Amino acid sequence: xxxxxxxxxxxxxxxxxxxxxxxxxxxxxxxxxxxxxxxxxxxxxxxxxxxxxxxxxxxxxxxxxxxxxxxxxxxxxxxxxxxxxxxxxxxxxxxxxxxxxxxxxxxxxxxxxxxxxxxxxxxxxxxxxxxxxxxxxxxxxxxxxxxxxxxxxxxxxxxxxxxxxxxxxxxxxxxxxxxxxxxxxxxxxxxxxxxxxxxxxxxxxxxxxxxxxxxxxxxxxxxxxxxxxxxxxx
Amino acid sequence: xxxxxxxxxxxxxxxxxxxxxxxxxxxxxxxxxxxxxxxxxxxxxxxxxxxxxxxxxxxxxxxxxxxxxxxxxxxxxxxxxxxxxxxxxxxxxxxxxxxxxxxxxxxxxxxxxxxxxxxxxxxxxxxxxxxxxxxxxxxxxxxxxxxxxxxxxxxxxxxxxxxxxxxxxxxxxxxxxxxxxxxxxxxxxxxxxxxxxxxxxxxxxxxxxxxxxxxxxxxxxxxxxxxxxxxxxx
DNA sequence: CCAGAATCTAACGAATTGTAACACTCGATG
DNA sequence: CATCGAGTGTTACAATTCGTTAGATTCTGG
Lengths: 234, 234
Known about the structure:
The structure is a homodimer of 234-residue chains. The first copy, chain A, is α/β, with parallel strands linked by helices and 234 residues long. Chain A is 38% helix and 23% strand. The first copy, chain A, contains 8 helices and 13 strands. In chain A, the strands form 3 sheets. Chain A has a 5-stranded parallel sheet with strand order 2-1-3-4-5, with helices on both faces. A 5-stranded antiparallel sheet of chain A has the order 9-8-7-6-13, with no helix packed on it. In chain A, a hairpin with a 5-residue loop joins strand 8 and strand 9 (153-155). The A-B interface holds A 77, 87-88, 90-91, 94-95, 97-100, 107, 109-110, 112-114, 116-118, 120, 122-123, 125-127, 142-145, 153, 155, 157-159 and B 87-88, 90-91, 94-95, 98-100, 107, 109-110, 112-114, 116-117, 120-121, 123-125, 168-174, 212-213, 215, 218, 220-223, 228, 231. Chain B binds a DNA duplex (30 and 30 nucleotides) through helix 6 and helix 8.
């Protein structure tokens, strides 16, 4: 999806840039991060972002004047992200041309929602590439269907899909039990361990694994599982 | 000053209405205040506000569904003013079409600044067209008709259209059950949950979905629905 | 080979979702 | 005013999903 909206992030703290770009890319946006205003301005000559996130406390320049220039010259939406929480700060920020003003600390989900509100487009889809091929099978995560090499379709549920995706994203590597639990969002505990097993068992059935000799999902006793398969995402 | 921007205020607390209209008129806007959603809707027939301030906790109606309708049908900017401060509330509010979300207690100066920010960018908040194409189907929302790829027409009702539109505006993204309820204006509760299901069931029938293996409207157990279809509005 | 731990999986059941059938509302119509 | 029919929420029950339980099975160290 090359026409996903482009969001630039201008903030001097790498941790915040990372958090934002993670959340935004997860939500389907393209992102570019900058730590300094000068770099950002240089990049503006060759690209036109759809939304600009700007932190006001920049080392090399006053953020507000930058916002002002941005709003005036580029047509882009400008969203200020700032630790300055006073009403007066917000008012002047908005008066200078910002379209929105978000206060640190913020929740990435709200940032995504506010960006979408600016773009007011249905928003890009969560899934970018959502089919994977492996050993004769094709997993269509968008349709929740597994396809045989003969073309026979087997539907799988959401929970099964979570497990399958987890494996396909880590082929031929050990997936520890605890890692699974975390990724599947289950509260750790005796009973959830069994739930995991059951999910895997059901997935194995759909993949027509031989219980005595599984070829795709191997159990490593005492450690976890390992998915053996030549995975190609497309 | 007849062409000063018109701001409507919908809030059941007279004190807040007074404070807002004072500040807004001071800032040069025209204002109209309403205490109930029904009055407000009646007034909409004769006037078109530039910005609508809406309190979510209304006595006679769920505010969110009103926001949804407003953003959709009128082209006006909608700013939610609410006491509900959870991130999740803000996210759903914005997802449902609000352009901004202000938390009580607020400073009137900030409200003014945010209104100005909205007016500056005549946001493309309005869905200009009323026809969408997806996977061989064409939905004519103006005529309440679904057209087959063979040209066969199937009428759909208003309630079905609400659900369909909600999906077509968020293709390939999870639509949570609560978001639906709020957009469709049902008071949350055991029984309305069923009403949702029934609407979707009826819509599925019209889309000739295979109950065992729906291709367009997928159910995500415990989470909501996801519409898989390549949507083009025109 | 044995004991104990880890894993597998059939079966059950609670929660969620699907849908047919019914009931109510509201306009249109005779 | 009675009737009809479309639209839609409600109810009741069926179907599905998925975690839990419990007993069987497999693995490992000794």
